[in-house]
């Protein structure tokens, strides 16, 4: 048994904090608040040595959704340009808050933290780990399905329903094999399991969580009062 510690914030605390921020942002209409959150997330990602290519991906991938949302609200509804900008920037808030979790947190540690600190069922933690670790295999299987289609002279594009139906069948087969493998290794959700890696909750985690949450609430209040 060994202990692991996050440099700043416990993974579960980080997840809950980012979830609260995203939910509050979804209920507000403030461009200024959205930009502050995006900037804060960017500074946090820089601390973890965010690569320039990753930064451009964070800006580029949601660009189409943000532009569509802006055009729809600004030109095809009775809402103002400010409302359209708020909705478009909100999309980037979701992207950057998600990046603060996925790019700075080890997924195995996060799953163990869910089980130990949030006391979620063990089958949820193992299911979460299985879903994360099976993604590379699913990518390879999708390529194999497309190659098999080309050999039969039936190309399967990324927009083909047949491709995703075959991928779904492959995912079901993989989940069945994983379940059988876990049972063969003695997994039983009703039995108490020993812990190899202990994810600690420190007093500083409560301080960081409470402090950031208070600052965010103050910003929300000021966004309504000043802007």
Q: What structural class should be given to the helix and strand makeup?
A: mainly alpha
Beta-strand level of the residues, as a percent range?
under 5%
Mean pLDDT: 84
Proportion of helical residues: over 70%
Number of helices: 9
Outline the low-pLDDT stretches.
1-5
| Major beta sheet, strand line-up | 1-2
Distance between the termini: 52 Å
Q: What does this protein structure show overall?
A:
The chain has 227 residues and is mainly α. It has nine helices and two strands. The protein has a two-stranded parallel ribbon. α6 packs antiparallel against α7. The longest helix has 30 residues. The radius of gyration is 22 Å and the shape is flat.
Based on the model shown, name its key terms:
flat; mainly alpha; 3% strand; 227 residues; two-stranded parallel ribbon; 9 helices; 2 strands
A few lines on this structure:
This protein is mainly α. The protein has helices spanning 11-26, 31-47, 52-60, 63-75, 81-102, 107-116, 122-151, 161-184, 203-226; strands at 2-4, 197-199. A two-stranded parallel ribbon has the order 1-2.
């Amino acid at each position: 048994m060994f202990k692991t510690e996050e440099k700043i914030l416990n993974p579960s605390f980080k997840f809950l904090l980012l979830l609260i921020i995203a939910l509050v942002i979804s209920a507000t209409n403030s461009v200024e608040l959205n930009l502050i959150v995006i900037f804060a997330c960017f500074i946090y990602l820089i601390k973890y040595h965010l690569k320039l290519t990753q930064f451009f991906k964070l800006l580029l991938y949601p660009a189409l959704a943000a532009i569509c949302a802006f055009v729809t609200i600004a030109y095809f509804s009775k809402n103002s340009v400010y409302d359209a900008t708020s909705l478009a920037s909100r999309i980037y808030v979701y992207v950057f808050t998600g990046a603060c979790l996925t790019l700075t947190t080890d997924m195995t540690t996060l799953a163990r933290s869910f089980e130990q600190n949030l006391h979620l069922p063990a089958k949820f933690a193992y299911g979460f780990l299985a879903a994360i670790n099976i993604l590379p295999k699913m990518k390879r299987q999708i390529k194999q399905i497309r190659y098999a289609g080309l050999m039969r002279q039936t190309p399967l594009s990324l927009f083909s329903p047949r491709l995703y139906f075959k991928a779904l069948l492959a995912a079901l087969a993989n989940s069945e094999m994983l379940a059988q493998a876990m049972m063969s290794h003695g997994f039983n959700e009703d039995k108490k399991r020993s812990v190899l890696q202990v994810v600690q909750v420190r007093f500083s985690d409560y301080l960081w969580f409470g402090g950031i949450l208070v600052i965010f609430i103050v910003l929300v209040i000021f966004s309504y009062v000043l802007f």
